[in-house]
Write a structure and sequence with these properties.
CATH superfamily of the largest domain: Gcn5-related N-acetyltransferase (GNAT)
Shape: globular
CATH topology of the largest domain: Aminopeptidase
Order of helices and strands: EHHEEEEHEEEHEHHEEEHEHEEHH
């Protein structure tokens, strides 16, 4: 393959990772929760996707680098692969940049053999590859102080006033795990319908909570005895991340979304986290501005995309037509009765390039 880096180790693409995979991930400084084997196995078990584990080893068999890949196939969007599906971060883990590039090229070889129309690497670091990089997404992160008092002072009176607006409504905050899943999911599913997006099946979140019990927490804000806002928190080392958060539309004017994020931040501080990851956004979008008001700073994402038969950015065939079709599909989905959306969404969402 053109541009293949000089081999630094023996590379294998496996469907079952080596027993030392998780130990390597846990010890690697730039790893994420999603690099653990359980995340890829979860995608396979919940959605039926193919999980690939790319490994580089030295002559003694010691791991030099790892790269998880998920292949998704559907009638809706065809055949494609991602490192890593259903999250913001994936990409290779290797101390040597040449090994990282070697892993990526090996993954491309596997994707090509499987007939994938593209392979996307979702990374936080630049790589020595010549595939095009998406520039439409960034992540937003907030450095956390050591105390609640310092956090409140840093956020300022304007934000705290919005939080207090919700508190005057007599809201209640609950933190927990699987016992809160039904309440979290009710808010999340309604919000996804309102956004015009098919919702994940509930068993997806249940499987995450079951596989990573020490790394996950649910937070629910109740108003008038009903869940009004809810979020899914994940923890990795000293970072708290909120991959999924939702607020019912009627509760937003009362500041329930502000109360939710205040509680998420206080949970993170109470756990001793030093960083809060608000997740990815499109620059200057509504979610981007919402996260920025908390003081979160943008950080570049390096999402590289390989496409068969070209070393250059592909011309997107019928891109304008596809965009219009997506807008129409979103508008139709927003008008579905909630029960229908919640029935159909789990059948579709696993095939989408989240």
């Amino acid at each position: 393959m053109r541009g293949m880096p000089r081999a630094s180790g023996a590379v294998a693409v496996r469907e079952v990772p080596g027993e030392d995979w998780d130990a390597f991930v846990t010890a690697f400084p730039d790893a994420s929760l999603y690099h653990l084997r359980g995340w890829s196995e979860l995608a396979r078990e919940v959605f039926g996707h193919r999980a690939l584990f790319v490994e580089s080893r030295d002559p003694s068999g010691t791991l030099l680098g790892v790269l998880p890949v998920i292949q998704q196939r559907s009638r809706l969007l065809g055949n494609f692969a991602t490192s890593l599906a259903f999250c913001n971060y994936g990409g290779p883990l290797a101390a040597d940049p040449q090994v990282a590039a070697q892993l990526m090229h090996a993954a491309v070889g596997a994707a090509e053999a499987l007939g994938c129309r593209y392979l996307e690497f979702r990374d936080l670091a630049p790589r020595i590859v010549d595939w095009p990089r998406r520039a439409d997404k960034i992540t937003l992160q907030l450095a956390l102080p050591a105390t609640f008092e310092a956090l409140a002072k840093r956020l300022g009176t304007k934000l705290r006033a919005q939080v207090k607006r919700a508190e005057r409504e007599g809201v209640r905050c609950r933190c927990g795990s699987a016992e809160l899943l039904d309440d979290f999911y009710a808010v999340f599913a309604e919000n996804m319908r309102d956004l015009g997006t098919p919702v994940y099946p509930k068993r997806f979140f249940h499987s995450i909570l079951e596989r990573f019990p020490g790394h996950c927490q649910l937070v629910v804000i109740d108003w008038q005895g009903v869940p009004a806002a809810a979020a899914f928190l994940s923890f990795w080392r000293q970072t708290a991340e909120v991959p999924w958060a939702s607020c019912r539309a009627k509760a937003k004017p009362l500041g329930m979304n502000m109360k939710l994020y205040w509680e998420l931040l206080t949970v993170a501080v109470g756990r001793g986290c030093t960083m809060f990851d608000f997740g990815r956004s499109t620059v200057d979008s509504g979610t981007y501005r919402f996260k920025r008001q908390w003081g979160a700073e943008p950080r570049a994402l390096y999402w590289y995309r390989w496409t068969p038969g070209t070393e250059h950015p592909p011309a997107e065939a019928h891109g304008e037509d596809r965009g219009r079709a997506m807008q129409l599909a979103t508008a139709v989905w927003q008008r579905l009765p909630l029960g229908i959306a919640n029935t159909l969404g789990p059948l579709i969402s696993g095939a989408l390039p989240w």
